Fold this sequence. Notes:
It is built from seven helices and two strands. It is mainly α and 169 residues long. Strands 1-2 form a two-stranded antiparallel sheet.
Amino acid sequence: MCTNKSNNKKNDISNFHIPRWNELPNLDLYLDQTVTLLETYLQNYIGNKDEKIITKTMINNYVKAGLLKAPKKKKYKKTHIATLFVICTLKQIYSINDINELIHLAIKTTKINNAYDEFCIALEKATALTFAGKQYTDDDNMTEEKYLLKNVVQSFANKLYVEKTFLHK
Length: 169
């Protein structure tokens, strides 16, 4: 049975939004600015409020691991920021190696801006439907890539639902 507290958390999810490609800054950002941007968008939805979602050290480690291209002149472009939004979201449920593979699969068949926007739309849809108690239904014309994306974002939405509704994180 849901309490008022869990209902409030469910209602808070209605504001869950990952910025689309055209909403990302057109100017390159320094590392501190990049961290602030990511934290601003994700802090209410991902992880524990006492822990950072992303740090400068984490970003540097993603660069060293080859998950993220090295910044030019210490500035991060849209591609970096979009990739970091995906990483921050998916690291809640997948390993860094798995995320790296999923990103490479996504951009193998489409441009990064399109893949990123599709990810954002699917993530928000899965999250909204999960918190509304509805199923993310399959489309008969769903490609294998879209089916994979649906399942990836649904796993995030399910984890978020359990944490916010029942574990009160």
